[in-house]
Write a structure and sequence with these properties.
The protein has 316 residues and is of the alpha/beta class. It has helices at residues 11-22, 52-60, 77-82, 84-104, 138-157, 186-194, 222-235, 254-265, 289-295, 303-315, and strands at 2-6, 26-31, 46-49, 67-70, 109-113, 160-166, 168-170, 201-204, 216-217, 219-221, 241-246, 252-253, 271-274, 283-284. Strands 3-2-1-4-5-6-11 form a 7-stranded parallel β-sheet, with helices on both faces. α1 (11-22) crosses α7. The longest helix is centred in the N-terminal third of the chain and has 21 residues, at 84-104.
């Protein structure tokens, strides 16, 4: 198939692009490079630099694309609280421009990189797709609005879409790995201590109702996540919008993550415990029962593999 990957110069988008190329697809990457890196785009894919508003229709029109995989987004929770208008404009506004370009170019399949932040603070875990959606920040709210928009475009225009909701992604795939200008994810920040770029890991709270007192979060290896996107691409049905969660089913505590990073790197990695952050739930885990049953997807790589792959990438 001929595929357009928006945000394909970013972390997850570049990994999925590499996997699509290996599967024999033709891939064009559309990215404004505001947070992505041109050298992250795998060899074999063509990079079109530009925003979705500026370049989506020109890229799609008459080019014979079969489907779109949509990763382009603003994704920092804290920034979304400070600049909500930016997140509604970039996430929802530019996705609307993309969907309109798809409709006019008769491209009728899309896989959307959504987020489990659409659920907000859950009533129970693991979180199923039927859980109430009550996002607690503009980032999650903008992604939820896109999910609703995809349902409407499926109903009105026959577009087939799949939204994939997940929490934390880690690991690397060859030359593709995590390198954000503003890094908010736990694993790369812990590994930066081992690299000498940070003095210590900051642990926010150790009095949660968990086995070791620290928060538990869901982590999925980026390659497992990419596999889910390829399965979702084949699962798109005209006029149907499907939503799947991607999760480990168990999760890992902050202390577990730090300890595995110590073992993998051989570095002591000092940790400093501070007060809880406001609004941090004790446990966030997504259930992946539905996508396992429907598409046969499963988690194949554990925390140690995620950390080892991320460490190898950062050392390069």
């Amino acid at each position: 198939m001929k595929l357009l990957v928006t945000g394909g110069a970013g972390y997850i988008g570049s990994v999925v692009t590499a996997q699509l190329l290996e599967a024999g697809h033709e891939v064009v990457v559309l990215d404004d490079l505001s947070t992505g890196h041109a050298d992250a785009v795998p060899a074999g894919a063509r990079l079109v630099e530009g925003s979705l508003r500026e370049a989506a229709f020109g890229t799609l029109d008459g080019a014979g694309f079969d489907a779109v995989l949509h990763f382009a987004a603003k994704s920092l929770v804290g920034e979304s609280v400070e600049k909500p208008g930016l997140y509604w404009d970039k996430n929802l506004g530019e996705t609307l421009a993309l969907l309109d370009a798809m409709r006019r170019a008769a491209v009728d399949r899309i896989v959307f990189s959504s987020t489990a932040a659409t659920y907000g603070e859950p009533e129970s875990t693991p979180i199923p797709e039927t859980a109430p959606t009550r996002p607690t920040n503009p980032y999650g709210a903008s992604k939820l609005a896109i999910d609703a928009t995809l349902s409407e475009f499926a109903r009105l225009y026959g577009i087939g879409g799949v939204s994939l909701r997940y929490f934390n992604v880690a690991g690397s795939y060859g030359a593709q790995g995590e390198r954000h200008t503003v890094e908010t994810h736990l694993i790369p920040n812990v590994l930066k201590v081992a690299l000498g770029e940070r003095e210590a890991v900051h642990v926010f709270g150790e009095d949660y109702p968990t086995a070791d007192g620290t928060c538990i979060r869901d982590y999925v290896h980026v390659m497992d996540l990419g596999n889910a996107h390829l399965l979702a691409l084949d699962a798109c049905e005209p006029g149907v919008h499907k939503i799947y969660n991607l999760g480990s089913g168990s999760g890992y505590s902050v202390r577990e993550v730090v300890e595995v990073c110590r073992e993998v790197t051989g570095h002591p990695i000092p940790a400093r415990v501070g007060p809880r952050r406001p609004g941090d739930p004790a446990v966030l885990i997504a259930s992946s029962d539905k996508i396992q049953a429907d598409l046969g997807w499963k988690v194949e790589r554990d925390l140690r593999t995620m950390v080892a792959d991320a460490w190898a990438f950062l050392q390069r």
